[in-house]
Inverse folding.
């Protein structure tokens, strides 16, 4: 995702001169990702971002406002990554596997504890009592569905999917597989097992190699 350069403006009092909003937000996201919204203290956010409390409030608002911005940033970057993985070029099967391989790399970072998906892990918990979080979670899921749907419609137009396949239904199946990988990575499933699950899911969506008989169709 292309990031806009921060404007060279006079910083408010309490904000460090070296303040980098994108870096600070990325580090705050990491803190929330590790412990969740409720368990992440302001002291931990200060340590993660290198900003004291007045600086954090001045830059992002309160803890909840910072968390909402972190969710927004994560969603935007995730959608951009999906859009790139599903871009024209590779066939449908390879495009989908690129999405799931990228997801596994994100959910299971090398040399670190499994972390799953920031949106699913934290957003689903906080959405129960926060309407704004619920709205962001629902909107993000719809955006990811649309990325898959657009790829399936292109696959139909190019003859990779038969005319009776339902791109809307397929998009939800494809997204559900992402959610499964996110949850299972956090639960401790191994990378090889989850990669095999992704491959099986792609075969279900696309049909066995050389065949096109097992995809969900309209009314089917």
């Amino acid at each position: 995702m292309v990031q806009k350069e921060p404007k060279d403006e006079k910083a408010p009092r309490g904000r460090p001169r070296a303040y980098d909003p994108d870096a600070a937000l990325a580090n705050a996201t990491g803190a929330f990702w590790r412990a969740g919204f409720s368990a992440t203290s302001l002291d931990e956010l200060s340590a993660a971002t290198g900003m004291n409390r007045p600086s954090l409030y001045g830059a992002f608002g309160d803890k909840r406002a910072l968390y909402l911005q972190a969710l927004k940033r994560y969603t935007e970057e995730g959608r951009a990554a999906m859009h790139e993985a599903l871009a024209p070029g590779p066939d449908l099967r390879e495009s989908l596997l690129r999405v799931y391989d990228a997801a596994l790399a994100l959910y299971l970072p090398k040399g670190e504890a499994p972390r799953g998906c920031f949106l699913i892990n934290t957003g689903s918990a906080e959405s129960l009592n926060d309407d704004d979080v619920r709205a962001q979670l629902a909107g993000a899921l719809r955006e990811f569905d649309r990325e898959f749907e657009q790829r399936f419609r292109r696959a139909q137009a190019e003859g990779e999917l038969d005319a009776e396949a339902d791109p809307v239904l397929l998009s939800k199946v494809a997204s559900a597989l992402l959610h499964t990988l996110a949850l299972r990575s956090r639960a401790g499933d191994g990378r090889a097992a989850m990669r095999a699950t992704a491959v099986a899911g792609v075969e279900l969506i696309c049909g066995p190699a050389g065949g096109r008989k097992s995809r969900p169709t309209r009314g089917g």
